[in-house]
Every structure is written in C-alpha cells, then in structure tokens.
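Give me structure tokens for this 141-residue protein.
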Amino acid sequence: MSLLPSRASLFDDLFRDLASGFTVKPLHGDPLPAQVKLDVKESDSLYTVLAELPGVRKEDIHLDIQGRVVTIRAEVRQHDSQEQDERPLRSERYYGSIARSFELPMDVTLDGVNARFDNGLLTLSLPKQSNPQSGQRIPIE
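Here you go.
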C-alpha cells in the first residue's frame, strides 16, 4: 500500500474545494466555524454545557441567559503578524461573529451560574430553578 496520495484523490480534493460555490479556502487559518458545537448534560441539580469556540478570546464571548434560553455569542478575528523587514504581497484576514441559542427543559438560577473558558472550550454550570428571573449578562472567568 502506497503512502503517497493517488492522482485521483488530489483532483477530488481540488474540485471539492472549488465546487461548493466556487469559493477557495483561505491560504492560512481556518474559516469561521459555521456553528458553535455544544454538549449539554443534566444532573439532578444543574445543567453542564460544553461549547467549542476555537480561536476566540475570552473577552469576545458574550453569554446571555433568559429563563431557560441560553445564548452564546462570540466575535472571531484573525490577525496576521508581519516582520519589520518583510514586505506584504498579499494579506487575508477575516472578522465575523457566531451565535448559538438553545432552550433547556427548566429555568436556570442566575446567581449560581459559573462560566469558565480554557483552550477554546467554554464550560457552563447552570443550576436549575423553579422560579423564573429576568435575564442578565454572565461574566466569564
């Protein structure tokens, strides 16, 4: 079995990149994620949410909770670095925002919410409650 890619697979990869709307992938960096990927788990007293936000800074994440609806928003920015003795011939960057809202089976107690962001993974601990409260913005550690 050969470790080299076949000629057919190289052309398949090229046309797969070009065929979807005749767009080309960026020369470096990943395109904006289409959606925030989530894992939601439930225990007797709380919900645990894991949200993937690769390439996002903690300061650019906004978390809003209103009753049982949780909304995660993030601003995504790609910056290029340039050395002092270099002359740029081409520079590509992207900016954009992504958001995801989902509804939990029960309302959340806003006082006990814990949000932690580490290595592109946002972890939320959302305590369950029976009495609804008004929405508020949650700080992220």
